[in-house]
Design brief:
By secondary structure, the chain is an alpha/beta fold. Helices cover 38% and strands 21% of the residues. The strands form two sheets. Strands 3, 4, 5, 6, 7, 8, 9, 10, 11 and 12 form a ten-stranded mixed sheet that branches. Helix 1 packs across helix 2.
Length: 311
């Protein structure tokens, strides 16, 4: 059903005259007559009777009027639901405790007036599909992995290089170190059960291990960060990597050590991805906030895989 004819019908019903409805709609009286005639043909009934006093609703017109008003209300709500700035900005992050989530918390503090909807998708393929379908507005991912170019309609910018820390239990050989180099980690078992082959984060750690001769194990089920911390605390032979901006809380009795990795410092390259045709005004505000508040990636003394895209 053509909503313009429905809107014209309601205008005539409210005004009581075709001429006044035409003035309200800023169209000609002839256009009003044609729209009403088209609607009557579509419905198969007469909606108005012309009288010396104007246009009066027929019995069918009276029956149709409340439904016509509801049709217009639904149409207006549908348009408002997608009008730029009228819905929350939906952004994907890897995990609730990740640096990406921290970036969104900082953005929310800086712009409390912007509604946010933060979600968690599995990998870059799922995130890109969600961007292209309009399910989300943006995602934070490491991009540039070999053989996985971004689609032409997806824009990206590297927004944060997150340094890696080594996490050990109190009995680990390196527990008392103030910092460690990647070379010193060769021969130590680094356990990361959350690595999933084929994901962008697995590609990052594969390259890190190859570059510095590290032993990174992803064996065993991933029961989450709490179970990982329990195992690291109780197993002197195991350590793990965590992002320097990842928020973790562990029991005081664990005695875990968080040790910076330096010379060079491996950094995880977080990029923001979005669809180039996305008109949401808050998306521009998010990009501006990240550009103004995060250090420029590519600092001296850091390491990223060669495929990581520049800012």
């Amino acid at each position: 059903m053509d909503l313009s004819t429905v809107r014209t019908f309601v205008a005539v019903a409210d005004a009581g005259r075709f001429q006044e409805a035409a003035a309200d709609l800023a169209i000609t009286q002839q256009a009003v007559s044609k729209r009403i005639a088209a609607l009557e043909r579509h419905l198969g009934v007469r909606l108005f009777t012309r009288t010396p006093r104007g246009a009066e609703l027929t019995i069918d017109g009276q029956a149709f009027l409340p439904h016509a008003r509801e049709l217009l209300r639904v149409a207006d709500r549908a348009v408002a639901s997608v009008r730029a700035g009228s819905r929350p900005l939906r952004v994907d992050v890897l995990a609730s405790r990740s640096a990406q989530s921290g970036l969104m918390r900082d953005f929310h503090r800086a712009h409390p007036e912007i509604e946010l909807d933060v979600v968690t998708l599995f990998d870059i393929d799922a995130a890109i599909a969600a961007i292209r379908s309009g399910t989300i507005d943006a995602t934070f991912r490491a991009v540039g992995t070999p053989g996985r170019p971004l689609p032409e309609d997806i824009e990206s910018i590297r927004v944060l290089d997150e340094p890696l820390d080594l996490l050990t239990g109190p009995a680990h050989e390196l527990a008392s170190a103030r910092s460690v180099t990647p070379a010193r980690l060769a021969g130590h078992r680094i356990w990361m059960p959350g690595l999933v082959p084929g994901t962008e984060w697995a590609a990052y750690y594969d390259d890190l291990a190859a570059e510095f001769g590290l032993t990174i194990e992803a064996t065993g089920p991933n029961f989450g960060s709490d179970a990982l911390l329990d195992t690291i605390a109780d197993t002197p032979a195991l350590a793990t990597f965590i992002g320097g901006r990842t928020r973790l809380i562990w029991p005081a009795g664990h005695g875990l050590r968080r040790i910076p990795v330096v010379d060079p410092t491996p950094v995880y390259p977080h990029s923001l991805l979005w669809h180039r045709d996305n008109p949401h005004p808050a998306l521009a505000a998010l990009r501006a906030h990240l550009a103004a508040t995060t250090p420029a990636p590519g600092a001296a003394g850091t390491w990223v895989p060669g495929w990581a895209n520049p800012r």
